[in-house]
Amino acid sequence: MNRALPSSLAEALPDDCRAAAEALNRGCACLSVDHRSLQQALETGAGSLSRGEALAPRPHLFSDSMVFVSHAHLARMARTIAVVERIVAQPAYRQRVLAHAPPLARHSPGAAGVFLGYDFHLGPDGPQLIEINSNAGGALLNARLLRAQQACCASVAKMMPAPAALEEDFVAMFREEWRLARGGVSARPLARIAIVDERPAEQYLAAEFELFRRLFEAHGFAATVAEPGELAFDGDCLRCRGEVVDLLYNRLTDFALEQPQHAVLRDAYLADAVVLTPHPQVHALFADKRNLVALRDDDWLQAIGVGGEDRQLLSESIPRTEEVHPENADFYWRSRRQWFFKPTAGYGSRAAYRGDKLTRRVFAEVARGAYVAQAVVAPSQRRLLVDGVEQDFKIDLRNYVYRGTVQLVAARLYRGQTTNFRTPGGGFAAVFPVPCRGPEGACG
């Protein structure tokens, strides 16, 4: 049963949009997802998919509620992202981070890389960029989820996100990748796209692969979902099941294509026989966790010409992040409660550990290196009514970004140490922007 925003809470919301969003997340237990609309969003339009195909084996993919985020925090995340993208474009930054990247990352294929995921926690000092991912999943699923939102009361209705042509933007993004890699208007039209992952039918977001396949076909492309073993390279063309592939939407988590089963794709990529997106250089430039160390190195940033305002924003928006080496391991063990330990090339919270839960045995693995220590940033919380019981869920905010532009902001609600899709009531959630009600109409 839906529970509308109490009128007393609506009337008492602070003028500051940041405080108002926090109050709403704690006090408004609205359920915003209209399941009939969600079914229609999945089953109709370009790239349709039955609700059963999407949700049956994944009951906690979508939360039934929304997350409130202030305009001020959304704007600060966008500013932080813009600063990071400007720095990544600098030759000095590329020289620094590619020096410790796998050799394949030095190949520059021209494509920018689709679906960068900038993940933030809302800490006491505002949005904190905890990591960047180079093949962030869920964008198309969240675009469909936005179609299924409903307002439980007039106060919430004013905050509902405005409709956006996200799917058209996504298709245009893949066309742009083709243009960037193949030389502009003189390039032949993009014709065939393959979406590739290991055992794609078994992946948690398998439904999204199929959504993309149907979306591409609805826009005139031949498209298929495939495994790496179905690819063949003849020295000239990359083929999948005998058909030439122009662009490969890469969902693999072998970011440097180092595993033997990816040799065919690696050879085709180095020969520029296929447009691969995202590609190894994108991961090296953005998603290696050591990059956050560089982005907080104020002296070095100043030396390469980054202005004081940009450096200040990064200092305030990126948690302290440091590399772990055998020679400094004792320090991190003693202070482990204040750190979150992440593998430099990790993804999806795999092999990531909160320091206060760490055992000596596991820390011995961390101490060998290839890990960073990041200052713990407690995420903000969303209080929901689940099966008649109030429960607090942690909030992770993901900005889906292409070439510096934020396409979509979505939330993940979870309980436990790291984001997951195993908690009843949790999962992807739509973000409702909270405006300011003060006399200036905006938060600083």
Write structural notes for this entry:
The chain is α+β, with helices and mostly antiparallel strands. The chain starts with 6 loop residues before the first helix and ends in a 10-residue tail after the last strand. It has helices at 7-12, 17-27, 35-43, 51-55, 71-88, 91-98, 139-147, 154-157, 166-182, 206-218, 263-270, 280-287, 291-295, 298-303, 308-317, 329-334, 360-367, and strands at residues 67-70, 116-123, 126-133, 192-196, 222-226, 231-233, 238-240, 243-244, 247-250, 275-277, 321-324, 339-343, 353-354, 371-375, 381-386, 389-402, 405-414, 427-434. The protein has 2 domains: 7-319 and 377-434, no CATH class; 322-376, no CATH class. Helices cover 34% and strands 22% of the residues. The strands form 4 sheets. Strands 1, 2, 3, 15, 16, 17 and 18 form a 7-stranded mixed beta sheet that branches. The protein is built from 17 helices and 18 strands.
Quick summary:
Helix content is 34%, strand content 22%. It has 444 residues and is an alpha+beta fold. A hairpin with a 2-residue loop joins strand 2 and strand 3.
The quaternary organization reads as single chain
Fraction of helical residues? 25-40%
What Rg do the Cα atoms give? 22 Å
**Helical segment count:** 17
- How many discrete structural domains? 2
The general outline is globular
The average pLDDT value, as a whole number, equals 90
Which spans of ≥5 residues are poorly predicted at pLDDT below 50?
439-444
How much of the polypeptide forms β-strand, as a percent range?
15-25%
Major sheet details: 7 strands, mixed
Number of strands: 18
Structural class by sheet pairing and helices: alpha+beta
Cα(first) to Cα(last) distance is: 37 Å
